[in-house]
């Protein structure tokens, strides 16, 4: 089933199409759950920051296609006090760490420490959310180009309102 979902997502939303950002419905439950970093240390998502949340896997082709643009977006905002990135995999550190090292990514990788909240749950990857103060500002299922102008405009607009 998961393989079929990835196949569908890959062809439905390839990186080169740069689909439009869609506003997500407000989440009735918290989207902030504890995470663990790849060393097992608990980390809390900061609801006072704009959170870029990406759920991915090392084996997922579309996930790998969008990762360079996530790295570019992260490089633009990594030092901004009001923006946080959470790149989340269900895979263990023994799988993720060699992948990161091989690809040279410098991103904050995490795992959820429990089940996904309903608003972020799904069986398709990659899936990405931009969240602020518990509200999902946008969500996208499938690979995307995350350093495109529409994404930067969305983040900048939200930063101007903080």
TrEMBL record:
It comes from Dyadobacter beijingensis. CDD domains: TlpA_like_family (cd02966). The keyword rRNA processing does not apply. InterPro entries: Redoxin, Thioredoxin-like_sf, Thioredoxin_CS, Thioredoxin_domain, Thioredoxin_ResA/DsbE_sf. This is Thioredoxin. The gene is resA. It is found in: Cell envelope. Residues 21-160 form the Thioredoxin domain. Keywords: Cytochrome c-type biogenesis, Redox-active center. It comes from the Bacteria.
């Amino acid at each position: 089933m998961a393989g079929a979902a990835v196949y569908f997502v890959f062809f439905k939303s390839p990186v080169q199409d740069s689909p439009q950002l869609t506003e997500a419905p407000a989440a009735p439950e918290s989207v902030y759950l504890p995470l663990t970093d790849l060393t097992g240390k608990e980390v809390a998502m900061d609801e006072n920051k704009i959170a870029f949340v990406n759920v991915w896997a090392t084996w997922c082709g579309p996930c790998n296609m969008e990762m360079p643009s996530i790295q570019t977006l992260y490089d633009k905002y990594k030092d901004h006090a009001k923006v946080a990135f959470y790149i989340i995999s269900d895979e263990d550190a023994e799988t993720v760490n060699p992948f990161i090292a091989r690809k040279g990514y410098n991103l904050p990788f995490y795992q959820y420490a429990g089940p996904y909240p309903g608003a972020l749950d799904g069986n398709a990857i990659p899936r990405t959310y931009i969240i602020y103060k518990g509200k999902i500002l946008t969500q996208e299922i499938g690979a995307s180009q995350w350093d495109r102008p529409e994404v930067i405009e969305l983040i900048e607009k939200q930063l101007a309102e903080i």
